[in-house]
Amino acid sequence: MSHPAPLSSAERRAISYANTLHQLVSHIFDKREGADRVLANYFREHKKHGSKDRKLIRETLFGLFRWWGWLKNLPAADGVHVSGLGFSSGLGGVQSQHWFTQLSLVAAIENHPWQDIRGGWLTQSGLTQLDIPAFGDTPESLNAICAALKSQFAGGEFTPSNLVPDWAWEHIIVPEAEKLAFIDALCRRPPLWTRAQGETRDQVLKQLQADEIAAIPSDRFDDAIELASQSINLDGITAYKSGKLEVQDLASQAIGEVAAPKAGERWWDACAGAGGKSLQLFSLMQKRGGVGELVASDIRPKALEELLRRADKAGFSPIQISPWRSDKLPVKADYFDGVLVDAPCSCTGTWRRNPDMRWIDDAAAIMDKPALQLDILRRASAAVRSGGVLIYATCSLARAENDAVAEDFLAAHPDFEPDAVRHPFSGEHSAAAKSAMLTLWPQQANADGMFVARFKRR
After folding, report:
1. Interatomic CA distance for residues 352 and 93, integer angstroms
2. Phi, psi of 439 (to 5 degrees)
3. Is 395 a catalytic residue?
4. In angstroms, rounded to a whole number, what is the distance separating the alpha carbons of residues 136 and 142?
5. Are strands 224-227 and 192-196 parallel, antiparallel or unpaired?
6. Which of 146, 187, 345, 395 is catalytic?
7. What span, in angstroms and rounded, lies between the C-alpha atoms of 108 and 115?
8. What is the pLDDT of residues 325-361, one digit of tens each?
């Protein structure tokens, strides 16, 4: 009677990683809980993992979600699609060859460096080889990977469009000529965008250089900085510790640029959260000659506490706090030169930063928001003075949450009119009313996706 050959140390480790990743992915799909939180909780409970373990688990986990649209379409060995564990995710059983094939594909597409683990996964998959090219530098590489997948896995459906859930294409209307570039952008790791505040960008860049942090100044905005590595301990950076460097995605920074607050103006951030855009508004006014008044509101006290902590660190005083305690306006009516409404939304614009959300959300994440968004916008508009501006923003790419809400607001509020703005990325400027409503696509500036509309009170 023959016995199977004993597993090598690398194969045992490969199987252990596969089990851990299966556990994490299963939890995320079953509980519909964000991958960041699930992973943080896992590492908190399993302190045995060193930095190399954490990196392998993290990168593979998020890679699985980046390419899930293809992985779930892989036919199993018998040609049947696997949809185990009680949900139609296409996730194979923990010890199945199908699961090891999915892991092997992610490692190949993203060209992961841990060759011994990749080899262990490939052995367990039952495949003798995996002829799949790595994700390249151009959108066309998606087509090359699709062609290779079709060649090696007959019977599976592999197109770039598969990488976005079917229901989403009904709500996210991408120009056909931009579709491949949009999908490509969603599949790339997001950069770490930051913003200089309280000092010039050149001064902050010198501090980063002294800390041996590689940084790239953006040619879009004069205070935006891209940090070249994402595995940076921010608390070890002098400029960050002193409040002179703030983490903020470039698309989020574009909202402040569209708001364009002037020196001495009064502004209200009606949905401030932890205050990223409040700090930016303060910084922009400070740069242009001085802050008049800045009030931040939110329904979450903890978020406003974090805002005050960040403002104090940056030396931005005073930013006033006025929480929403009821439906009643928490600030003066007809008072502010500018009001920013960064409304709660489906967050489809952050899908490359949170690729798991593509697959654990559904159309309800979009369709249950517009009524709330319109209500918040209506309430907040009462605080805008005659001749003042109202900015409506979301980190969504869905028309129902964006243009449709803006159009409904204008139809019900004839005292407001579209205020045409220059596109913060393309630089285009048109007198047409629609130029007051801009969708910022991820492929336009290597940033998140966002929507912004600018209105003026007559």
Report:
1. 26
2. -100, 125
3. yes
4. 8
5. antiparallel
6. 395
7. 10
8. 998 999 999 999 999 999 999 999 999 999 999 999 9
Please tell me whether 36 is known to bind a ligand: no
In the block, tokens 């501090």 appear at 207
CA distance 333 to 329: 8
- Phi and psi at 141, nearest 5°, equal -65, -25
206: Cα within 13 Å, side-chain hemisphere: 4
**Where do the structural domains in the chain lie, given as residue ranges?**
9-163, 191-248, 250-457
Concatenate the DSSP letters of all residues of 411-456 into one string: HH-TTEEE-----TTT----SSGGGGEEEE-HHHHTS--EEEEEEE
250-457: CATH number: 3.40.50.150
Q: What is the pLDDT of residues 175-191, one digit of tens each?
A: 999 999 999 999 999 99
What letters, b where the CB count within 10 A reaches 16 and e where it falls short, cover 46-64? eeeeeeebeebbbbbbbbb
Task: Give the CATH fold of the 9-163 domain.
Answer: N-utilizing Substance Protein B Homolog; Chain A (1.10.940)
Could you please state the CATH topology (level 3) that the domain comprising 191-248 is classified under.
Alpha-Beta Plaits (3.30.70)
Q: Is the pTM of this model over 0.90?
A: yes
342 annotated as a binding-site residue: yes
